[in-house]
Amino acid sequence: MNSKHLMNELNIFSAHAQKSFLFGQIWSANEKRLHLLNKLMGYLSIMRCDTKRVTSNLAASGMPEKVQGKGARQ
């Protein structure tokens, strides 16, 4: 094996290693995004359940559906 052939093999290996490293970084970043998205969806689900609970409690207590307050239409 001559030095030119050896250098060519080394360049191919180096390029493959760089691609693998970049793919690993992209994969890791996507996993982090997915984890954060799942957390956000969980929080939104909890908020939706709380909103439904509060609304049903207000309805059960005889309060009007639209309670006067900040941002309510006058």
Explained architecture:
This protein is mainly alpha-helical and 74 residues long. The chain has one domain. The chain contains one helix and no strands. The protein is rod-shaped.
Order of H and E elements: H
Shape assignment? rod-shaped
Number of domains: 1
**Protein structure class:** mainly alpha
Distance between the termini: 87 Å
Largest β sheet strand count, sense and barrel closure = none
Fraction in helix: over 70%
Radius of gyration: 29 Å
Strand share of the residues?
A: under 5%
The strand count comes to 0
Q: Whole-number average pLDDT?
A: 78
Number of helices: 1
Low-pLDDT segments, ≥5 res:
none
Features of this protein?
single chain
What layout of secondary structure does this protein have?
Elements: H1 3-60
Summarize the structure.
With 74 residues, the protein is mainly α. The chain has one domain.
